[in-house]
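BUG: 3D viewer hangs when loading the predicted structure for this chain

Environment: internal workstation, default settings.
Expected: structure renders.
Actual: progress bar stalls at 90%.

Input used:
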Amino acid sequence: MIDAIVPSVSPVGSQPVSPTDLARGAAAAGAGPDAPAADFGAMLGQLAANASGTLKNAEAMSIAGIRGQASVQQVVEAVMSAEQTLQGALAIRDKAVAAYLEISRMSI
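Structure tokens produced before the viewer hung:
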């Protein structure tokens, strides 16, 4: 079901990415003098892939719960994780739209 929404992003992991993980990854990317600069687009792509993986995991866990192959606790944890990931993605989208609208209102 989620493949129809995000077909071009392959899942990398099923755990949501926390701000601490992002900061740690950004610090590691710029750690050494020979390390490439952190690419914002790549970071957003990784974030989208992780979000997609989390949503797919929640969907699969829900189906497993309906079939009786997963406990209620496992289903609730997966769905809550997906909800948290989705809320984070929506917050990022809202901030990006707000920034775009603010830039478009600037006088040249």
